[in-house]
Amino acid sequence: MRDFCFFCITYNKDYKAFTLMIESFKRHNIDKIPFVVAIQDESIYDEKNISYDRNGGGQNLISFCDFKKFEDDCIKIIKDSDFAYPYLIKSKRKNGLSSGYLNQEISKLTFFEYEYAEHYLCIDSDTIFIKDFSRDDFFYDETTPYIILVQDKDLHSKNYYINFAKERKYFIKKIFDFVGCEDSRLRTSHNGQIFSHKILCSFRDDFMKKRNLSYIDLLEISPFEFTWYNAYFQKVSLIKEVAIEPFFKMYHTKAEYILDRLSGNNISNLKNEYLGYILNSNWSKNEFRFKNRGIFSRILYLFLTKFT
After folding, report:
1. Are the C-beta atoms of 34 and 76 separated by less than 8 Å?
2. What letter would DSSP give residue 203?
3. What are phi and psi of 32, to 5 degrees?
4. Cα distance between residue 67 and residue 260, in whole Å
5. Chunked in runs of 10, what are the mean pLDDT values of the chain (308 residues)?
6. Are residues 191 and 282 in contact, defined by beta-carbon separation less than 8 angstroms?
7. For a FRET experiment, which of 5, 44, 110, 123 has its CA 20 to 30 Å from that of 259?
8. Please, is 22 exposed, middle or buried when counting C-beta atoms within 10 Å of its C-beta (0-12, 13-18, 19+)?
9. Whole-angstrom distance, CA of residue 84 vs CA of residue 77
10. How far apart are alpha carbons 230 and 181 in whole angstroms?
11. Ramachandran assignment for 186, one of left (phi > 0), alpha (psi -120 to 50 degrees), beta (any other)
């Protein structure tokens, strides 16, 4: 196996975002770090995703071949069914989450079985790289990867995120309690985490199999794949913990992104601390909740999202 790679799971409707992400990756990947991209295999679903129409006129539908054209010496394009087929589900589950959403979480937790790399950095197709990066950005030393562990203080300290932050904390705590990780800090990450083969093998063999659990069983308890990894990592301590802040600046909503731009923050500022930024592709589902917000902030929010 290789020492380290990037990993992304995506699908046809994210094709536009994917092209921006992969182009920025190629531009800044100065160490030629390998990148495996898994495309969701529509053939396994009871209800298939309609391929994204790039022109809106019923022509030129996105296919697996459209993704394959990005392959080169560093980039490998496969299907999620190439490694995760035994675990993927076909239909929406009782928690209301779609099979596609749950399967992309399962794929992140099972990619280690592809036996491609000892460590892999999971990113999403809505990630944009903004400066050159090398292996040293992701490892403390030759054998120890960094791990992103934070307490979501950025969410809990903003009034307009308070409901989302509380709900997220509830599901995070469910995972920590289930895993048996007694740490009141509840440190975890949203995304952009480095997963390690050693941890995931132990998670499967020493935790899941002994309890007769499947990956979908876990995600029906709490659909936070990164927290399942992070909680177990802290529980077993199989790898030296060297915790750092996120590699990428996460914009949870469109309004947050716009406000940051209006404040004068720009790419040059972000480059001082981050390798890139993430423009959440689920903005339409994760916008501000109006409860606990005054009339001025509501009007400002509506103006920003409608006219910018």
Report:
1. yes
2. I
3. 55, 45
4. 32
5. 97 93 97 97 70 56 93 97 95 78 96 98 96 98 97 84 89 98 96 97 98 96 97 97 96 77 80 90 44 51 54
6. no
7. 123
8. buried
9. 15
10. 10
11. left
